[in-house]
Design brief:
Keywords: Lyase
Strand order of the largest sheet: 1-2-3-5-7-10
CATH architecture: Alpha-Beta Complex
Largest sheet: 6 strands, mixed
Order of helices and strands: EEHEEHEEHEEHHEHEHHHH
Radius of gyration: 18 Å
Distance between the termini: 40 Å
Organism: Paraburkholderia hiiakae
Number of domains: 1
Oligomer: single chain
CATH class: Alpha Beta
Structural class: alpha/beta
Number of helices: 10
Helix content: 40-55%
EC number: 4.1.1.-
Family: Belongs to the enoyl-CoA hydratase/isomerase family.
GO molecular function: lyase activity
CATH superfamily: 2-enoyl-CoA Hydratase, Chain A, domain 1
CATH topology: 2-enoyl-CoA Hydratase, Chain A, domain 1
Length: 267
């Protein structure tokens, strides 16, 4: 068995800047920084450490200057797990951890962002991106019904018709559109994205951390207050179960692996 080159290894590293900012970089270069279970577990560990150490600001990125910020879920893992966005799965745990982090999490984004990685960006408190960014939600291409919690996060961030077009057509949201709809806090040139994200982080790091933490938690709770009848949730769960267990999802995964267009039959 040949050794894996260092640049191909899955890894999550942290650089501590001025004692109050953690720059967390996740890498999975051979898979376009796909969010597999190993990477998500390492990311979860890093966020836990920084939270316990009281780090008030985290910059989250896979780096700058690359074509793909993250390809989203590693679809190779879906063959064994047909519902990778269920409540207890690695991605959902990380998304909840980012949203509940007792400080500010800034997504620093360069290049295209796909699937579950879009949800990761949306879960961050602030987003600094360069002009190469584009967001694509592609679960319909493989027959995956997105989670209710994920859709609620998107509804809070995007107009409903833009959201439907992203999910129904798998059409990427380009940088200028994302800025216009308020998805981005800053849209800058590629050469400036790191400096702008760091400048924002340094400004936040001088503020009162307990006050910021309290406001963040209040906003998270208020954002999550969406009363839904129990029977409606049960109906949603059944629709997702049927879609995840259906032939269309198996066909979607097979087509992706074989680099061909899927032939969905609605069953």
């Amino acid at each position: 068995m040949s050794a894996i080159a260092p640049e191909e290894c899955v890894k999550v590293t942290t650089e501590i800047i001025e004692d109050r900012i953690a720059k967390v970089v996740f890498r999975n270069a051979s898979r376009h920084h796909a969010l597999n279970a190993e990477l998500l577990g390492a990311l979860e560990d890093q966020l836990t450490i920084h939270a316990s150490n009281g780090v008030p600001v985290v910059i989250l990125t896979s780096g700058v200057g690359e074509k793909v910020w993250s390809a989203g879920h590693d679809l190779g893992e879906l063959e064994a797990d047909h519902d990778p966005i269920a409540w207890g799965k690695p991605l959902e745990r990380v998304l909840r951890q980012v949203r509940a982090y007792p400080g500010v999490v800034i997504a620093m984004v360069s290049g295209s962002v796909w699937g579950g990685a879009v949800d990761l960006v949306m879960s961050c408190d602030l987003v600094v991106a360069d002009t190469t960014v584009r967001f694509a939600m592609t679960p319909a291409n493989i027959g995956l019904p997105y989670s209710t919690s994920g859709l609620l996060r998107f509804i809070n961030s995007l107009p409903i018709h833009i959201l439907k077009e992203m999910f129904f057509c798998a059409r990427p949201l380009e940088a200028q559109e994302a800025e216009r709809h308020g998805v981005l806090n800053r849209l800058v040139q590629p050469a400036d994205v790191e400096a702008v994200a760091l400048q924002m982080a340094k400004g936040i790091a001088t503020k009162a951390p307990l006050a910021i933490s309290a406001v963040k938690e209040q906003l998270r709770i208020l954002e999550d207050v969406v009363p839904v009848p129990v029977d409606a949730m049960e109906r949603i769960a059944e629709l997702r179960r049927i879609a995840c267990a259906g032939d269309d999802m198996r066909e979607g995964l097979a087509a992706f692996a074989q680099r061909r267009s899927p032939e969905f039959r609605g069953r």
